[in-house]
Amino acid sequence: MKEIINLPVSNIEEEEYHINMGPQHPSTHGVLRLLVSLQGEIVKSLKPHCGYIHRGIEKMCEKDTYPQVIHLTDRIDYLSAHINNHAVCLLVEKALEVEVPERVKYIRTIMDELARIQSHQLWWSSFGMDLGGLTCFFYGLRDREMILDIWEETTGSRFLQSYNCPGGVMQDIHPNFQKKVHAFLKTFKKKIKDYDRILSGNVIFENRSQGVGVLSKEDAISYGVTGPSGRGSGWSCDVRKTEPYSMYGQVQFNEVLRYECDTYSRYMVRMQEMHESMNIIEQLIDNIPEGDHSAKMKAVIKLPAGEYFQRVESARGELGLYVVSDGNKTPYRMKFRTPSFSNLSVLDHISRGMKIADLVAIGASLDLVIPDIDR
Amino acid sequence: MDNETLKARILEIAPDAQQEENKQFLTLLLPAARLHDLAIKLKNSPDLAFDFLFCLSGVDYIKQLAVVYHLRSTQHKHALVIKVKTDDRVNPNFDTVCDVWRTAEFHERETYDMFGIRFNNHPDLRRIFLEEDWKGYPLRKDYIDEVNIVEF
Amino acid sequence: MSAESLILFFIVGAFLVGIALLFSSLVPPTSTNPQKAEAYECGIPTEGITWLQFNVGYYLFAIIFLVFDVETVFIFPWAIMMKSLGMKAFIEIVIFFFVLGIGLLYAWKKGALKWE
Amino acid sequence: MTFNIYDFTSFNRWIDEGLNSIMPPTWAMITEMAIIGIVFLLFYAVVGLFLVYAERKVCAFMQNRVGPNRVGPYGIFQTIADFIKLLMKELVYIKDSDKLLFNLAPFIVIIASFMALSAVPFAKGLHAIDLDIGILYVIAVSSLGVVGILLAGWSSNNKYSLIGAMRSGAQIVSYELSVGLSLLTIIVLAGTMQFSEIVEMQRNGWFIFKGHIPAIIAFIVFLVASTAETNRGPFDLAEAESELTAGFHTEYSGIKFAFFFLAEYMNMFLVASIAATVFWGGWMPFHVSGWAGFNTIMDYIPPFVWYIGKTAFIIWLMMLFKWTFPRLRIDQLLTLEWKYLLPINLVNILFMAFLVLMHWHF
Amino acid sequence: MNSFFKYFSDIFHGVKSLLIGMSVTGRYFFSPGQIVTQQYPENRKNLQMFERFKGEVIMLHDGNNQHRCNGCGICENNCPNGSIEVIPVKVTGEDGKPKRIIDKHIYHLGMCTFCGLCVKNCPSNALGFGQEFEHAVFDRSKLTKVLNQPGSSIIKGVE
Asked: Would residue E159 count as lying in a domain?
């Protein structure tokens, strides 16, 4: 008991309690380290330390040709692999002024929306788990399995598909594709009601999330918090609406906006987005035009010298792709403006004065994917 | 505002800006010394209102090091790219814009980490991805790492 | 069977834990190194001291708890004897509860039931 | 001597007399105690292991999984394998931890649950101690377990554990009251604190039916408060795994961890037993006054089965809570107790007392 | 007074929402038919992968132990990770001219990311994806494979 007596007498107001959340922590969903300063249970400030899985993808891209870059973009934000691929393909096609077949646009849009749904499903699962409702995790993963099966049948992989290629897609959709997507939509429309019953409407969940981690619209813009997190603050920042690409200009869908600015509103935006994504898929799935699955491209793709920028809406926000080309077959500089990186920067700002449990909820509501931060 | 009027408007506040070739965005090369001053003007002028810095990237042009700012106005929906360049490869530095756009804080740290460009008045300029004792700046073109970079 | 068998249960419980601990500290292979003895903090060495003066947010709750816990003890005898004591005791206990309730309401209104 | 599964009183007397006839009374008593101790120890271990298995199976079914199914048929030996594994694990000592308290904590947790178990009547005549202040004793002893958790968290020299310990402190100060007061509601109706009498009084109807509205409210309050008292989800703040990695038992390894684990399940069994005994009649079969034929059929089901059935149902309910709800935040934990459960409880006791005095209960 | 009613309506709505949540898990508990777990090692026999499944890169051989690879090396150039090494040899063909055929087509499975560029860009469709997915080995060197089977030759007319 000697230690107790020898404890230094300290001033509570001045002493801060530093605690590491991560790199090996269940709530950081990967190897992110948050150095949290606490006062009791209250978070005073926090410092994110990232880079634990930094792989230097931007440097690797400078050695790879444009088709080869695709497989690296899969690994930035693994949950929206299709969308990342899509960004590279759009950029190359725009630079070379290649017109891709209509069929490709349809397939890419459907795949993007499937990616968005499965990303949100996994986010919902881990959100529930972070709040302590472990059953959510299994329900989310169970339903996500159907999308992975659809992908596996068409692209050959479940997770990192590398399905898009400049000019089109690697191979045509499987004959079962439409049938399976229909089956998925039918099933998931029933299952998503369970999501609402078990979590959205739950009184504990509402109390845990409402008024927690308030992020005003001005702050969201200033910190560059895009995607569902930004739209939860009432900022209309959906690239699919502001700069439509592929089929997004021609389908009807609503940009989900909520104005409570808290964790609950970010949650509800994602839940609504799943419905909107299903809506988009329903509009497209039966109308995929016949045609080639790829445009004719040169064997070696060389971008004209210059600078290019392509934005797409990934599942967690705006993915920017900035390429400086010197006319070679490899990019001179390739920069990914990843949504999670900007979203992480706001975590300190909105979690100050909250409790540790709130910090977990806020972190989950920002839907951080660590490889997306570290690249 | 279309690109022509935008260009004219910006040349008003920054007469020494030079336009660069870019099909997509209006790209202006600004003098590095006045960057912070102009950033405040770009954000706060009601007719410009560039409130969203959606990308901040460092580029190594071998002779020069550059920082590229992609700006967008959520209100007027126009976009602008500004660039600053420096010839100093040993000790490159620019003024920080993270008090204007908060998102720049992390992006500038990343640029410092990868290119070694220092940002004056940055509140917390440390390496963000690499370790504190990492030698060199990996995204520079003259960076050599025999251990981690494998040549095929 | 009476209260002394409580001692027995105490002994048996302690015995159970003791035997298993003894077994577990003797039989399994052990290997120690300084890293293993570190406190777990997500793989990062701890910063600062752990046993710091800690701001517990429920200090006021603890005081109200003490008050209520003592009051509950008064209710136990009444609860057992209530049927034989009848209406008069009931009215008395209503007054007792009323005072308790006023106390709780006062604490509530004063914001003592708020986490700080 | 005829063995009667409906009444263990004669069985007990037979053992007592048999032992007294072959040895002096002091030795007879010591032998009896040893027998009881060993029987309870075995029971404790079996129930603990089975509950761990049951929880894993129950939650698996709720989550569309099959759960453990590799060790033995339907995986029933899984927990035994786990227990052996934990027994063979190295005990890691933590630098700068408070050694005495660190080792004492598992003792306190286990002893508290073990001692509380002694008061539970499993069937007619089948209980270790029939204290006349049974309920008070159980409340007092079972709340000791939280002290063990507090010590475990504090002594580990780990920041997560310390925060977990602080949270378990909050748990002590809040849910203690509600457990006591909700049981008081039934004591008002029963007029006794002795478990055997409480069960006996439910011969012609369980208290939850006899006391109708206030009894049901008291049951719900008891269920919530005792779930919190046992540190189970959604009140598992002290070990909140997504916030504090493992909370108070982060630094515990091997068999010491197993004790915390076992104690949690035994506490769950204990509060379910108390709830079953006090509200649902314990081992008493379901009787409807006036239906003699029905009552005789019900009497054929052995009391032990009734008791286990009721307890299992309440345990299932608690598992359903854990695997459905997200975790509460610490201030919500206190708010729930002080702003909702406590006022409801106070009013409920008066309501029940009024009901009893007016003879409005069944 | 308003807050008084709100207090009770809060309790009511809270309990109701909790019961709704419990009904979901409770329903799944009583419907074991919805279990989705796959018993992996046991279901090996009837485990059917999708035909396009990218398990590993293989060289397609026909019944006569013949393949279509002429050792051009396009797959090697296209691989982003350097997981393919093509080692050609020069032999004298039947017509007396020197001809390049493949000696070894080495594939490093441990470095492969299954991007599919080698299969897509192969001009003679010599490569394909195999269904095998159990690649775990104790020695990393076993992940390096030679894709052309011993004694195999090129199908006539492919060059």
From this structure: no
Contact A58, A335 (CB under 8 A): yes
Same domain, E149 and E105: yes
For D113-140, the DSSP string reads HHHHHTT---BTTB-S---TTHHHHHHH
- As a whole number of angstroms, the distance between CA A301 and CA E118 comes to 16
Please answer yes or no on whether D233 and A3 come within 8 Å at the CB atom.
no
Top-confidence residue, C2 or A41: A41
Residues of chain D contacting residue E28, judged by C-beta atoms under 8 Å apart? 61-64
Among E14, E54, E117, whose Cβ lies nearest the Cβ of A68?
A: E117
Q: Is there a contact between A345 and B128 if contact means CB atoms under 8 Å apart?
A: no
Q: Tell me: do C71 and C103 sit in the same domain.
A: yes
| Run of H or E residues at A35 | strand A33-39
Are residues E12 and E75 both part of a single domain? no
8 Å CB contact of A307 and B52: no
**Averaged pLDDT for residues B83-104:** 86
Prior bond of A23 cis (ω within 30°): yes
Nearest Cα of chain D lies from the Cα of C11 at a distance, in angstroms, of 9
D-chain CB neighbours of A131 within 8 Å are 242, 326-327
d(CA A154, CA A174): 5
| Domain range enclosing E19 | 2-34
Residues facing residue E130 across a β-bridge: E56
Residue C66 shares a structural domain with residue C27? no
What is the per-residue pLDDT across D177-201, written as a single tens digit (0 to 9) for each?
Answer: 888 888 888 888 888 888 888 888 8
* Spatial distance between the Cα atoms of A129 and D327, rounded to a whole number of angstroms: 9
E53: helix, coil or strand? coil
Q: For chain D, give me the number of helices (H) and strands (E)?
A: 16, 0
Q: ipTM of the assembly? A: 0.87
The pLDDT tens digits for E18-31 are: 888 888 888 888 88
- Confirm if E125 and E110 have CB atoms less than 8 A apart: no
Q: Are residues E25 and E61 in the same domain?
A: no
What does the domain layout of chain A look like in residue ranges?
54-374
The widest CA-to-CA distance across chain A, in whole angstroms, is 81
| CATH fold label, A54-374 | Cytochrome-c3 Hydrogenase; chain B (1.10.645)
Domain assignment present for residue C41? The answer is no
Contact A223 B103 (CB under 8 A): yes
Distance CA D32, CA D35 (A): 5
Which member of A3, A132, A360 has the closest CB to residue D234?
A132
Question: What are C7-19's pLDDT values in tens digits?
Answer: 777 777 777 778 8
The percentage of chain C sitting over the pLDDT mark of 70, rounded to a whole number, equals: 90
Which of A82, A203, A330 is the best mutation test for E, with the most CBs of E within 10 A?
A: A203
Q: Would you state the pLDDT for residue E158?
A: 65
- DSSP line for C73-108: HHHHHHHHHHHHH-HHHHHHHHHHHHHHHHHHHHHH
Chain D and chain E touch, per 3+ beta carbon pairs within 8 A:
yes
**How many structural domains comprise chain E?**
2
pLDDT band at D258 (very low <50, low <70, confident <90, very high): confident
d(CA E29, CA E33): 10
- C60 and C109 fall within a common domain: yes
Question: Chains A and B: how many Cβ contacts under 8 Å?
Answer: 85
Please state at what angle helix D254-280 crosses helix D144-155, rounded to 10 degrees.
160
Interchain contact E/C (3 or more Cβ pairs less than 8 Å): no
CATH of B3-120, one of 3.50.50.60, 1.25.40.340, 3.30.460.80, 3.80.30.20: 3.30.460.80
Q: Across chain D, what does the average pLDDT equal?
A: 82
Residue D95: list chain C partners with CB under 8 A: 34, 37-39
Whether residues C63 and C20 share a domain: the answer is no
CATH number at residue E67: 3.30.70.3270
